[in-house]
Amino acid sequence: MSAPAVESVHDITLVVNGVPQQLTVPARRLLSDALRHELRLTGTHVGCEHGVCGACTVLIDGLPARSCLVFAVSVEGSSITTVEGCCESDGSMGRVQRAFQRCHALQCGFCTPGFITTITAYLRENPDPSDGEAREAIAGNLCRCTGYQNIVAAVLSAAQDPTP
Amino acid sequence: MKPSPFAYHRPHTVEEALSVLAEVSADGKVLAGGQSLVPLLSMRLAAPAHLVDINHIGGLDSIDVGNDVVRIGATVRHAQLEHHDAAARAIPLLRQTVTYIAHPTIRNRGTSLGSIVHADPSGELPAVLALLDGEVEVMSEGGGRRIAAADFFVGPLESALVPGELAVAASFRVPPPGSGSAWMEVARRHGDYALCGVGAVVTVDDDRRVTGARVGLISVGPGPVLVDLADAMAGQDADELAVADAAALVLTRIDAEDDIHASADYRRRLAAVLTERALRAAVRHRPGRAEAA
Fold first, then answer.
1. Model pTM?
2. Where are the domains positioned within chain B?
3. Closest to B249 in 3D by CA, of B217, B218, B289, B223
4. B103·A140 Cβ contact <8 A
């Protein structure tokens, strides 16, 4: 039996939704918990906490990632975009959020933040997806309410929204 | 669902990483993409006292495409490999397979070499490494060694790495000219672990006769199962492939088990059907076929 592990604590900087943030976190702090507990950005939802459901998806340097599968200390210096950052510069809803509202793409809303971040990044890479591509784009996110039809519709609707 | 405490190390060079790994030895674990490791830590199925984060080491994130091999460094992400056109041209099986690994969000973060070292019997890349006669480059303070795929996968979630060692790269051998490849798998849900998966590489000569055929299977053994089908298929007309004997041979080599997702019988059925389909698809997809036809 080896000696009990020592909890190492680290001062890190993350740029979250464009704002540099200084945090002091134990090494084992998941990025999802750092965002929610340290920074009180509770828009990022924690569902399964082992990388299956997609609710905690955030953008790390622009790319979607499960924040429950990343240690905050490991992404020190990175730019993180959470659902709170997927809005317009005046704080109003962003185009993916507007499309969700238009298409009634949420019911309970728990999974929605993960969809918003995933789709926001996806539409940057693929601005004009087909129905099949839209379905594939959200395949890594679980929703237990909607049956997905309206979420697919929201992806397509957001893509047609001329406001960036 | 939170990991137990650990000491975190962030080396910036390979030498520094090797020094830490030598010091912490069996109490240490390497953190690369973390897409398999972090769930294990969160569920406390593993509780290493030290994590050595290799994400901040420069120079491990390159993909080198040579005439004979495609070599990937330890921090190359699945998504990077998937979108690398030169790698896909040299070895189409890489892109054909990587798109089956989980979902794009996981592929953005998970590393291809990490998936190999993780040695999950359901992992796609271990089978690809075996199919392509690949090898893993390993370094430790004492020096380095190259481990052939055939020797690398020791058992479920167990590779040939020993404490203090760091896998720094993997090389996949470019198949001979006239080769085609395919990857097929069946999962309960899109992106889930495969109930069974089969990769195939078939080599055809200028007279359109099969000269070589191999398949690599996942989720039907303690590690990737590589089956050489040359004896069963050599000399066949590529346009009129008979694959039943090959599938029968595969069934003698696998060790399918029951679990909550599928019965052993169902997995065997998948192994046979997917072997047949993958062999046919590999022949269809070989480069230059259109010109030859």
1. 0.95
2. 7-53, 63-173, 179-287
3. B217
4. yes
